[in-house]
Amino acid sequence: MSDLRFDPARLDGTRVTQRRLLVATLTLLLVGPAVLLMADLHWRTGMDNWKILHLVLFAVLFSLVAFGAVQAVIGWFCRMGGGDRQRILKSLGPEDEEAPLDAPTAIVMPVFNEDTSRIMEGLRVIYRSLEATGRLDSFDFFILSDTTNPNRWVEEESAWVALTRQLGARGRMFYRKRRVNLNKKAGNLADFCRRWGKRYRYMVVLDADSIMSGEAIVKLVRLMERNPGAGIIQTVPRLVNGETIFARLQQFASRLYGPVFAAGLNYWQQGEANYWGHNAIIRVAPFIEHCSLPELPGVEPFGGRILSHDYVEAALMRRAGWSVWLAVDLEGSYEECPGNLIDFAKRDRRWLQGNLQHAWLVTARGLHAANRLHLALGILAYLASPLWLAFLVVSTVIAWRYAATGLSPLPIDSFARYLRMGFHAQALLLLFGTLGLLFLPKLLALFDLARRRGAAAEFGGWPRVIGGAVAETFVFTLIAPVLMLFHSKFIVVTLAGRGVAWVAQRRGADGDPEWREAILTHASHTLIGIGWGGLALWINPAFAAWMSPILLGLALSIPVSLVTGQLGAGRFVQRRRLFLVPEETSPPPELARLARNLEACRRHVQPLPELAPDYGLMQAVLDPYVNAVHLALLREREQSQASASEERFATLRAKLLREGPGALSARDKVALMLDSDSMAALHRDLWSQPAEGLAAWWRTAIRAYNVLAPAPQTALYR
Prior knowledge:
alpha/beta, globular, Spore Coat Polysaccharide Biosynthesis Protein SpsA, Chain A, 10 strands
């Protein structure tokens, strides 16, 4: 078997170049005739500035469609032939599986105001899975908190202590809360690297919703050991645990179509792949030395700190001579996705600004051509929306001018005479050719599924596969124009100089979209769809029919957003086993354990409604155990600050106990919680003062505490 092993260190640069030339050539072979047909259509009716603009927009948008289709075609051929031999996973041999594992590796999870139970139970599952491999001794775990919500903060501290005790992981699982959230997630990881990075050879970076099997993590470490020139190896996480129709459609589409696209990506990227920020392993030493993020010129939104750090870090790693690989066929890597359209758009708002910042870096010195392409494609992924909108607007203007003049196609020589077709036939050929490229990857994915015996059963059988593919295509056809308007608005807002706030992402069963939020968010989309539809119908019924999928999606944006984002509707669909994925028909042990543990967590008693807004502060002050944990994790106040701040803190402490948390601002409450002397004094004073000296809120809290001690934040399952 050793002669079949792939050695990335001996990768033939000429062969990689040939692969990329093949992708580029096939893309151009698709784009050229389509652009020529569109130009010929305009030539028949008289070329002008509007039509030149229309042609340019069409060429850009069609190129993106063609590039995606070519990747899918190549990926399908790679999988048909038993898989591309030049995959990073093929570098491992049988002897590697039995080799000792002595590479110190940190598993790091940056968190920001996330669901504490989900964080801890996810880590419990990963820990137990690694323990089952017998390789746990090589790994340490770090929860890197940037949480600003006091309730979440205290929950994280107490739940971390409980989890460490239950797992017997003392000295192996660590928690750190930053005082200042500088540079968001990138700064969080940079802080870890400065403090502890030199102790570890590798780090596996997770998101708060990530799950990885122990076997997958161990294999990533073995891949790094086998390939000393690799700086980053990125897995392809599978979307799981979707409970709404929106989330279930995403994970169904990703699971069905994703393997073909991933194989096509690996075909041309090779050792110059991208890093997606999570579910990846990184070689720590070169990451520290070469991947420090520059501060961009100017201020936000385009300048300042880089928001989307992952693409840039991959580019810097490559510039330093280290390879970046995509492990397309590594099993056991999972993540979750937003449950509704509005939350999906909010996440895109952050990513969009971060990707637009990359415009500064596309021409940066020393970057490899592949990384420049990654950065450019990341920008185009969002610029495509305003370009598509502009294309539709220009199409409307051209249709109106054509109808208003009453002109017919000019009887002049054109390219179409060689095809022996009329004006309308040529237009239909262009339309169906474009639709064919859009749907081709879906068809290839179905062919790929049919090739693998029994694979359709993992999705619930062929009727459910076909029905799911049709339903997913229909729903996302309605959603696509809504995202087009979202992204176009975000770009305009960004260009106007408005930055983005980094908000916590709602995950899983955090709740249904609100009716009021959905109506206010999508009201403008609905009005645009109805108004544009009326205009298109007035111009020409045939033009209105051509625009109908876009206009229908906009007009129905409110009900589509609400229905696809409702937990009840999603669970109804789930009970009927629709949009199934293999991780549901045959759940991996890690996902099954996570589901059991989270169900146990949801049965915990919730705090009284009047205490809930400040429940974390209440626990940290009132409960002796939680107070001790919180104090142990705080740094002592420096002596130079003590005299200057003590008077202010004393005033805040007295006000908190006398008037309750509602009398203090959020900033003052966080300041008290960050001060070890104040937290110790508050705990002592609360239990020593007579009841009449305390606010009614604290008297209620003490009564509730005496009746029922605070519930643990982690399940008792192993």
